[in-house]
Amino acid sequence: MSRVGKLPIHIPEKVDVKLSGSIITVKGPKGELKWDFVSDMRVSVKEGNIIVERPYDTKRFKALHGLTRNTILNMVTGVNTGYQKVLQITGVGYKAQVQAKKVVFSLGYSHPVEFILPEGVAAETDQKQTQITLRGNDKQLIGQVAANIRALRPPDIYKGKGIRYAGEIIKLKAGKAGKK
Prior knowledge:
By secondary structure, the protein is an alpha+beta fold. The chain has helices at 59-80, 139-150, and strands at 9-10, 16-20, 23-28, 31-36, 42-46, 49-53, 83-90, 95-99, 102-106, 113-116, 121-125, 131-136, 162-165. It is built from 2 helices and 13 strands; from the N terminus they run E-E-E-E-E-E-H-E-E-E-E-E-E-H-E.
C-alpha cells in the first residue's frame, strides 16, 4: 500500500468536490480546477473525505496511487488557500514592472524582456521592483511560470546576478587567480 496514497484528503467547508467518470472538479473561494485522472484509479467522496484506491498492485498503479492523491490534494489546497512563489532579482539595474497581464523585465540585455502571464496567474512586485510574487490556485502552473521567468536570466555563478527563487542559495565560484 502506498503510504501517501492511502491517506484520506479532508474536504474543507468552503470547498465543493464533484466526480463524473474520471474527471474531478474542485470549486472553492479561489476558483475552480478540473483534472482528468487515470480512469482505472478509484476515487470516491465519503463523509467529507476523498479516498483514492488502486485496482491492482502493479508497479504502474503503485506509482499512480500517490500521484493521483497528491494532485487532488494540491487542487483542494489551491482552491481553498491558493499558492504563491516569490522570485528575487539581483543585479545593478535589474528590475521588473507588472503591466496588466504581462511583466516587463530589465535584465541587462539591450532590450526590455516582456513575459505574458497565463490565465490564472497574478503577479506583483515590491517597492524596489526587485521581488516578484506569483499567485494562483494551480500549484503546477505557478511552479512552471516561476521556472520560465527564472530561465530569462538564471543566476550567474560568479557574481550571483540574475533571477532566483526566494531562499535559493547560489554557491559562487572564485574568479581567476592572478598570473604568476
